[in-house]
Amino acid sequence: MEKATYPNLTHAAGYILIYRPEHPAANCHGYVLEHRCVMETEIGRVLQRNEIVHHINGDKKDNRIENLSLMDWHTHGSIESKKYWDARI
User: Fold this and answer.
1) Per-residue three-class SS string for 3-24
2) Which residues contact 14 (CB under 8 A, 6 or more apart)?
């Protein structure tokens, strides 16, 4: 029997979801955010719940490791807040 293939999906917020039902963070359909998997492969471990993978260039579909930065929620919030307020000026 041929192994089934599952398409990548795009999350409502614009992130790419990949099918990895064995992943601890997979949703009820077996999908997980691709950028988190890319970072996990780079650092050699599963990300913790308090760790955020930030897209440096703001493109949520650009999951090249050189465009990803690992940080905590507080740091990520500071970056996003600054971008928001800088755009309003």
Assistant:
1) CCCCCCEECCCCCEEEECCCCC
2) 60, 61
